[in-house]
Amino acid sequence: MNEAIRPGAQTPPQAQPASGAPELSVVVPTFNERDNVTVLYRRLEATLAGIAWEVVFVDDNSPDGTWDVVRDLAQRDSRVRCIRRIGRRGLSGACIEGILASSAPYAAVIDADLQHDETQLPKMLGLLRAGQAELVVGSRYIEGYKSEGFDQQRAGASALATEIAKKMLRVEIADPMSGFFMIRRDRFEQLAPKLSVHGFKILLDVVASARGTLRAVEIPYTFGARQHGESKLDSMVALDFLGLVLAKLTNDAVSLRFLLFAMVGSIGLVVHLTTLFIALELIKVPFAEAQASGALVAMTSNFILNNFLTYRDQRLKGFAIVRGLIAFYIVCSVGLFANVGVAFSVYDQEPIWWLAGMAGALMGVVWNYAMSGLFVWRKK
Ligand code: GDD
Ligand code: MN
Fold it and tell me: Is the Cβ–Cβ distance between 306 and 372 less than 8 Å?
C-alpha cells in the first residue's frame, strides 16, 4: 500500500503512514440518518477494498439516535469512528471537525444519505496520489453529469448561487456547492483556521479561502435520490450562503449576523413609530405612555424576528423564550441609554442633528448586538 502512494507524486503530502494507519479518511456528517449509515458503511467497504481507509461519522446528537447505530458499527469494525457533538449544529462545522480528527493524508467528505456516488472515491484518491490535484470535487455541472435527485426549483437556485459565487469570489470550479470532495489533509489543515463553521457550503469556503492556490480537479457523478429520511436544507440556507459570500469578500470583517441584526433594528424603528402614532392619534394615549408602548412593541417584535432569522441556528424555544425576551428588554434598555448618551455628546461637540442621531443609533445597535450575543442567544 505504501508504494502505491509514493513514486511519481509531485508534492508528497506526508511521510509514509505507519502500517495499519489509514491512507484515506472518509468524513460523513450526519443528522437523523439512522437508516442510511449502515448501508453507506457497507458500500464503502465494498468500494474501498484494497485501500487503507477509515470512516468518521460526525453526528450532531441526532434525535433518531444515528450515533447509536454508528457506535454499533464501530464496535464491530475499528475502521469506523463516531464523533457525537452535543449542543452544536451545522454541516460545515461537522465536516471541519471530522477532517481535523483524522491523520490520514487524504480526507473525503460525503453525505450520509447515499445521494453521492461513493464508487468515485477510488478514482478521486488516485488523482490525489498521483499529485495531479490537491482537491478533487465530485461535480454535478460538468459533462457527464446526470441527476436523479434534484428538483427543478432547487437546480435553479443552486445554479444561481453558483454563478454569484464564481463572479464575486472568483471561484473557478464548476460546482463549488458540491458536498462531495476529497482533499489533501495537510492543505486542508492550512486553510482550516480561515473556515466558517456556520452554514452548508464547506467546499465553497475552502476554495474561496485558498484564493486560487489549491490545484483542483473535477469529476462528474450522478447525484442520486435520497433513500431514507429528509433533507435538512431549508429555504433559509440562502441566507447562510449570502453570509459566506459577504464574509469572504470582506475578509471576515462584516458578519451576516450583524447585518441581519441591524436590519431587524431598522424594522423595529418603523414598528416603534407606527405604534406611537396609533397610540397617540387613534387611541389618544398621553405621549409618555404612547412612547413606552412603542418601545415595548418594537423590542418584542425585534426579539421575535431575531429569534427567527438572525439567530435561527440558536433559536430559543419553550421557556427559554420568556427568559430570553426579558434579557433582551434589559439589554435594549441599556442600549437606549448608550444611544442617547453618545448622541448627546456628539451633538455637544458638533451640533449636527443627523450626525449625532446616527452616532447614537450606531452605538445602540453595536451594544445591543454584542450584549444579545452574550446574554440572550448565548452559545451553549
Ligand atoms: N453533523 C451534521 N450537522 N450533519 C448534518 C447537518 C448538521 O447540522 N445538517 C445536515 N447534515 C448532514 C445530513 O445528515 C447529510 O448526511 C448531509 O449532511 C447533507 O444534508 P442533506 O440534508 O441531505 O442536504 P442536501 O441533500 O439537501 O444537500 C447536500 O447535497 C448537496 C449536493 O451535493 C449538501 O451536501 C449540500 O451542501 C450539497 O450542495
Ligand atoms: Mn441529501
Answer: yes
Alpha-carbon gap, residue 37 to 31, rounded angstroms: 10
**Where are the domains positioned within the chain?**
2-234, 256-375
What would you report as the CA-atom Rg of the chain, rounded to the nearest whole angstrom?
25
Grid cell at residue 92: 460545515
Q: For residue 200, which ligand has an atom nearest its CA?
A: 1
Mean pLDDT of 323-333: 95
Ligand 1 pocket: which of 26, 86, 91, 315 to mutate (most atoms within 8 A of CB): 91
CA of 228 to the centre of ligand 1 (A): 13
Indicate the DSSP class of residue 81: E
Which fold is adopted by the domain 2-234? Answer: Spore Coat Polysaccharide Biosynthesis Protein SpsA; Chain A (3.90.550)
- Lowest mean pLDDT, pick from 46-60, 127-141, 192-206, 300-314: 192-206
219 exposed, middle or buried (CB, 10 Å; 0-12, 13-18, 19+)? buried
Distance 232 CA to ligand 1 centre (A): 6
